[in-house]
User: Fold these one by one.
Assistant:
Number 1:
Amino acid sequence: STQRTLVLLKPDTVRRGLVGEVLSRFEAKGLTIVAMEHRTIDASVADQHYAEHVERDFYPPLRDFVTSGPLVALVLEGDEAIEVVRALNGSTDGRKAAPGTIRGDLSLSNRENLVHGSDSEESAARETAIWFPHLA
Ligand code: CMP
């Protein structure tokens, strides 16, 4: 059934000039962009978005990274969009992600892994409310 999912093209994607490449993959798959914004976030937005990770050892450098420059936030819609986006993104660690995925083809890092996609319908609703309150 049709779902919406919250996607981030993280600051590494913008810095590396890969916004078009990554967006093309989502569009070519057949997903529809229903909202998109170029934005630089502060630590409080990072803490909200990554609420489940704020106590983890990897979080302080992750927070520094996601606040380090502009990113592109978007909402994508399509049949089973949550799972489809996660499959396109590939596994978290770019060094281990399968070739053919965004991370597998374009990232060599566990932190600077280019993209974020909501991991469940609950996460998609929670994250959409943070980034695009008018859509929540
Ligand atoms: P994301 O899908 O946005 O969800 C949490 C993010 O934390 C993840 O992508 C990575 O950017 C980062 N991350 C997860 N695990 C680690 C880790 N072990 N070391 C560094 N960064 C991590």
Number 2:
Amino acid sequence: TWASVKMGPPDAILGITEAFKKDQYEQKINLGVGAYRDDAGLPVVLPSVIEAEERLLKSCLDKEYAGITGISNFTKLAADLAYGEESIVLKEDRLAVTQTISGTGALRIGGEFLKKFHPSTKILLPQPSWANHAAVFRSSGLQPETYRYYNKETIGLDFEGLIEDLKNAEDGTAVLLHACAHNPTGVDPTPDQWKQISEVVKAKGHFPFFDMAYQGFASGSIERDAFAVRYFVEQGHQIALCQSFAKNMGLYGERVGAFSLVAESSEEKARIESQFKILVRPLYSNPPIHGARIASTILGDAQLKAQWLAEVKTMADRMITMRQLLKDNLEALGSTQNWDHVTSQIGMFCYTGLSGEQVDELAQKWSVYCTRDGRISIAGITSGNVKRLAQAIHEVSK
Ligand code: PMP
């Protein structure tokens, strides 16, 4: 029956993990991982998450199904976190929201909703973007295209290219925007550039579709990382928003996320939510409950939330420190190249500017593994390996 099924191509990132595992060298470094590691290189379960789980265990909740759009206390608290408790759309009860299978599920529900109800089925993605974006939207029946984003020469934002492409796109096109900590480049627009993007999006009647997978995890501040989302809402844009609690709560495998749409009125919100249910029901019926309970236990308790915020900041600060250490070490080794982008970029990923050949050399000669686009995961850097890493990068980039 399946004789005609062809072998699919391997996942680029998983390939790196394989190669890393095979390498026998003791001081090998894996910079391909998309999850946070502490300074000893180990995965982290946040103390606030452990505390929330202990409370949940003691409260002996049953395991009955959540509603189709999830646990309502969770979706309310997730919306508060993203939009701000004082947000006009929350006060006016015009945010349609559903719990999702983490950020990927939010993107998929958003994609399905657009396919069904948005007049244009085109969606513009930054070039480059998280590799799964195009796959998710294509699977939803949309046509992903790209807008210029990254400038190889400056290892920074191609702001003129971005604005030009948004201006040249057909009016009313959906545009995917990374709310903060752009993956894979680590390059974000400045607040002033966001304001200009908002103006163009408004003038063109484009539909701003935000993916916020790193709120708090980028800068260490929930508010700062939500700047673009909240600014667009203040400017009257009816945005779409995908949220993930994978990174900022370290709930990766628990699959905790939310998808929301700003509606014009409370009545419109109700109609949209009824359609969320119609989309979700045949896909997975209703979302998992454990992770959403953890998140709402944390967000719903002032003391536990404060503890969590401090923990998020610790993670963000560690990455900011590792960026600085990497740059300092490269300079101390006498590298004459400009490494300013290492510290000006933000989040878990850094586009080093290394070529595919240089990346191959890193793996072969130094047992340092990262993707061939030169993206390194800052989470894989520790105070113990940063010196050797800098040496390796310096040697291959001389
Ligand atoms: N969007 C972006 C930009 C991401 O980097 C990721 C995770 N790497 C996601 C969405 C989704 O992740 P998850 O489904 O684990 O929440």
